[in-house]
Amino acid sequence: xxxxxxxxxxxxxxxxxxxxxxxxxxxxxxxxxxxxxxxxxxxxxxxxxxxxxxxxxxxxxxxxxxxxxxxxxxxxxxxxxxxxxxxxxxxxxxxxxxxxxxxxxxxxxxxx
Amino acid sequence: xxxxxxxxxxxxxxxxxxxxxxxxxxxxxxxxxxxxxxxxxxxxxxxxxxxxxxxxxxxxxxxxxxxxxxxxxxxxxxxxxxxxxxxxxxxxxxxxxxxxxxxxxxxxxxxxxxxxxxxxxxxxxxxxxxxxxxxxxxxxxxxxxxxxxxxxxxxxxxxxxxxxxxx
Lengths: 112, 167
Prior knowledge:
Chain A is an all-alpha fold. Helices cover about 75% and strands about 0% of the residues of chain A. Chain B has helices at about 5-20, 25-45, 50-75, 90-110, 130-135, 140-160. In chain B, about 30% of the residues are buried. Chains A and B meet through helix 1, helix 2 and helix 3 of A and helix 1, helix 2, helix 3, helix 4 and helix 5 of B.
């Protein structure tokens, strides 16, 4: 349900802009943690798109199930992002012990 | 119609996500991202998604970003790289890809049928804890259980990967 009427197209456009900023960060940074943060921005912009669609479904009483499904998807994406952050950061800690750096250009090994 | 509140949150989100990817100090990156997530939580709340706004702040800003800060301080990274400090061609192509993607997505969003006026009569509240909790523990119970399994696996994996060799 829309508390204050907001154009959902504007929310989707904002989600697109944030996704592009995240892509820029992933492509142009070389610090592993900065790349990870950019991926978090991309995940969040996808969540924003889900929320925009869920909100437009929520305005119609016949589509309440779709609105709920959209929000639950966001919930699951947040759960998966938490798991991803935990494993990824543990990998960076292991890598830093080995290489004294988390510059992704210097990570060209599959095993050691 | 774009309300001033949404506009303010959107401007803050875009500005601070640019800070989050461009500042050199990783601690500043994470703290900028906290602001972005708060702005997003504000947008969720404006759209009536109360539960998501709450978990955005509790889980994302409260747990995941603190984990990032913890790792940055543990590894003692003082300065990261600058944006696009690699090869010139690589930076140029990356910037072109990102700008092209952004233009495409915004164009696609503007092409969709406009929605977001007043709710139809009889629209029910879906964004609060009660309907979400009910759906989570009935229709989507299997996915809910799977995500608990995934989180346990991730915790065990993280502990295994980050452990110190003991000799």
